[in-house]
Amino acid sequence: xxxxxxxxxxxxxxxxxxxxxxxxxxxxxxxxxxxxxxxxxxxxxxxxxxxxxxxxxxxxxxxxxxxxxxxxxxxxxxxxxxxxxxxxxxxxxxxxxxxxxxxxxxxxxxxxxxxxxxxxxxxxxxxxxxxxxxxxxxxxxxxxxxxxxxxxxxxxxxxxxxxxxxxxxxxxxxxxxxxxxxxxxxxxxxxxxxxxxxxxxxxxxxxxxxxxxxxxxxxxxxxxxxxxxxxxxxxxxxxxxxxxxxxxxxxxxxxxxxxxxxxxxxxxxxxxxxxxxxxxxxxxxxxxxxxxxxxxxxxxxxxxxxxxxxxxxxxxxxxxxxxxxxxxxxxxxxxxxxxxxxxxxxxxxxxxxxxxxxxxxxxxxxxxxxxxxxxxxxxxxxxxxxxxxxxxxxxxxxxxxxxxxxxxxxxxxxxxxxxxxxxxxxxxxxxxxxxxxxxxxxxxxxxxxxxxxxxxxxxxxxxxxxxxxxxxxxxxxxxxxxxxxxxxxxxxxxxxxxxxxxxxxxxxxxxxxxxxxxxxxxxxxxxxxxxxxxxxxxxxxxxxxxxxxxxxxxxxxxxxxxxxxxxxxxxxxxxxxxxxxxxxxxxxxxxxxxxxxxxxxxxxxxxxxxxxxxxxxxxxxxxxxxxxxxxxxxxxxxxxxxxxxxxxxxxxxxxxxxxxxxxxxxxxxxxxxxxxxxxxxxxxxxxxxxxxxxxxxxxxxxxxxxxxxxxxxxxxxxxxxxxxxxxxxxxxxxxxxxxxxxxxxxxxxxx
Length: 751
Description:
Number of domains: 5
CATH topology of the largest domain: Rossmann fold
CATH class of the largest domain: Alpha Beta
Distance between the termini: 60 Å
Radius of gyration: 38 Å
Number of strands: 37
Shape: extended
Strand content: 25-35%
CATH architecture of the largest domain: 3-Layer(aba) Sandwich
Number of helices: 14
Largest sheet: 8 strands, mixed
Oligomer: single chain
C-alpha cells in the first residue's frame, strides 16, 4: 500500500458554476422576495416581530439564489515531493539474447560487435544516466519479469508486461511518466494494452525503448517430444518429435533417440528452413522399468544456441497386461474386428462375453470367452477397461446389480468404460440404471434403433479432438486431420440427441445436425476416478480398407491404454494419486484426484489431504484437496494445480489424520516460459506508447529520451472541489431556516 503524497496548497476560494440565465433568475427571485417582504412588513405597521419574520424570508430566498448558482470551495494543491519518472526494466531470460548490433538495435543478428539485449539498454539501470533529470524528477528504477510466483525464491519463467504497468500508478502517487524497456516478448498476464488504457486515463505517458532483433537467431531446437507415457515391454514404442529450425537453409540432420539404459537409435531428417518439422523413431524396450528418452540433434553449422538441441521425457514400460472385457449381444462386424485387434495386442489380456440369443449357454465361442458376467466388485475390479456393446438390462443380459458394479468400477477403481451402441437399441435401457449417470450423451428416445444412411457419413474432429491423444492417428495435427478426413465412412450412427454438460466432444457428424448442433459421435467424460467413452458408430472396422490394421488397431490400442492409464498411476497401501491430463503442458490446469483410506483401510470420510509439488527450479506449492460432495464418503479428494515450468515435478500426497505419504512424479511438457533467441516484438511497446501519447526511442538514441523527458510539462495541480450546494450541512441549514420560518409564522398568528 502507498500513502498519499504530502500536498502544499497553492490557492483556495469560493467559485460558482453558473450561467447568465441562472444568475438572472436568481437576482429576479431575490428582488421579488424582497418586494414581498417589504410590503408585508409595511402592512403590519412595521412591527418588530413581522420585520424579523420577513427578514428571515429574505435570507432563505438569498440562500436559495446562491445555491442555484452551485457554489464550490475550490482548493488547488501540488505534491511537496518531486514528480516521479518510473523506469521499468525487463529482467527476463530472453533479454540475454545476443542480437543487438552496436550500430543498430533493430536489425540485429549475431556478429563480433553484437550485444545482448540487456547490455544494449544497461545504461537505463544506472543512476548516473538519469542525473540530468534529478533536479526536476525523482527517478524510480524497477526491474520486472514474470508475475509473482508461488515461491518468491524461484527464478522468473516468463515476462509479464501488464502487472508492472498496471501497478506503477498505485506505487507512485505523483507519477509524471513511465519509461519501459523490453523486447516485448510477453507470455504471462493480461494483454499489456489493457494497462496502457488505464495509464492514458490517468494522464501518464509511456516512453518505450524496444530492444532486440526482428528475426530469430540461427538455431535448431528440439521443441517437443510427444510420446505416450506408458508402453509395453518387447513392443515397438513410437517416439514422435518436433524440431524447430530458424536456419536460413534446409538442413539434413541425424536425430538420435537415447534411452536411459544406453540404447540408441538414429534417423536422418530433412529440416525445413524457418519452420518446424515433425517425425518419429521406433524404440523396442527390452525390459520393464522407468526410462528416460532423450531426443538429440547435433549442433549445426552457423547455429548459435546449442543448449536446446535435446529434450527428455520419462516413459514407464510395463510387463503386466491390461485386462479388457468386451460384453456384446450379437457378433456384429465391429465386435469381431475389435476382438481380433485386442487379442493380437501383446499388452492386452482379453475376455469376451457374448449374450447372443439362441445360444445354449452364454459365452463367446473363442478362447477369450467367459461364461458369465463378473458377479462381485472383486471379480470385476480385475478389468482395466470394459466395452459395453449393444447390450442392456434385459432377460439373459445385464442386471441392475451388474450396472451398479460397473458404475463403482469406474467411479472408485479408476477403470474405463466404453459404450458402443448397436441397431438393436439395448443401450436405451441403461439410462434408467446406475449407468445412466455415466453416459456422456443424452440418448434420443424417439429412434432407439439409430439412423442408417445410404450415403456414408464421416467423422469431423472438434478442437478437443484435434489435440487429444485418443484420436491421434498421425504424428502432426495437420496429418492427423487429413487421416480422419480420409477414413472410410460409416452408414449407421446411434441415437444421440446431444452431449451432456461436462463432457468433451472429440468428433461430430460431418453434415448431420439437430437443434443442439452437429450430432456427437465420439464423446468422453471423467466420472469419479475413471473415464467413459461413447462411440456412436459401429463402422470403425471399415478403417482397415486399403491399409489393413494401421488405423483400426492403433485407435483401439490407444483407447485401451488411454482409459486404463489412471489405474496405473502412483499407488500406496492406502493411497492412490490420479491426475488429468496425463501429459500436462505448462500453464494447463491439472486436475488432481486422490483415493485415501483410513488406518484400517476403509475410505476416509473427511480429513486434511494435501499435495505438495516441487518444480525443477526448486519452487514448491501446496494444494489442499477437498472432498467433492458425496464422493467424500468414499475417500475421494480433488483439487487443481497449474504447472509453470516444464520438466519432472516431485509430488507428495499426504494425509494429516493417518500420517500416510505417497511420493510420485509428474512430467510437464512444454518449453520454458522464456527462450533465448526468439525474435523481439517491438510492436507491443510501440502500441503501448501510442495509446498513452508517449513516444518510442531506439537504444542507440537514449540521449534523445532525456531531452524528451526534460521537456515534459509539469503535472497540472490537483484541484479539489467541495460542492457546497450539495453538502449535507447546506441542506440541513436550509431545512432548519424553513422550519424556523414556519414557527415564526405560527407565533405571529399567520397560520
